[in-house]
Amino acid sequence: xxxxxxxxxxxxxxxxxxxxxxxxxxxxxxxxxxxxxxxxxxxxxxxxxxxxxxxxxxxxxxxxxxxxxxxxxxxxxxxxxxxxxxxxxxxxxxxxxxxxxxxxxxxxxxxxxxxxxxxxxxxxxxxxxxxxxxxxxxxxxxxxxxxxxxxxxx
Length: 154
Prior knowledge:
Layout: E1 2-4, H1 6-12, H2 20-35, E2 40-43, H3 44-56, H4 62-77, E3 82-84, H5 89-95, H6 108-116, E4 121-123, E5 138-139, H7 141-149
Parallel strand pairs: 1-2, 1-4, 2-3, 4-5
Helix pairs in contact: 1-2, 2-7, 3-4
């Protein structure tokens, strides 16, 4: 099972017009998820980040931000992606030391959520996750797609 980070959700939804190559790869990833070739999860934390980004980029037009967020969230919720909660305080305390190499504290909830449910990989465009390869390897959608095309199981 793999964890899909906010950076990939953004490429699939809000930034698809700005980053067409990433959108294409993220779309292919979601096709594979919907076909059952990849079992993938994301967290409520990632969905919340997506909402915050949509609204922040349209502020102070709350209606436009809400509509942008709704469209993005619906695209994700209409997929076969599985959803996990934000890590509980206890999990954060117990697992924080595993991820001390993460430079961006906003990445910690993603890593803890993924690790807690047994994910083997984080799929992201965020290079910060490359700092924890021994605990939770990070790959881009392109890398995951290439592995599947070469017959490697996730």
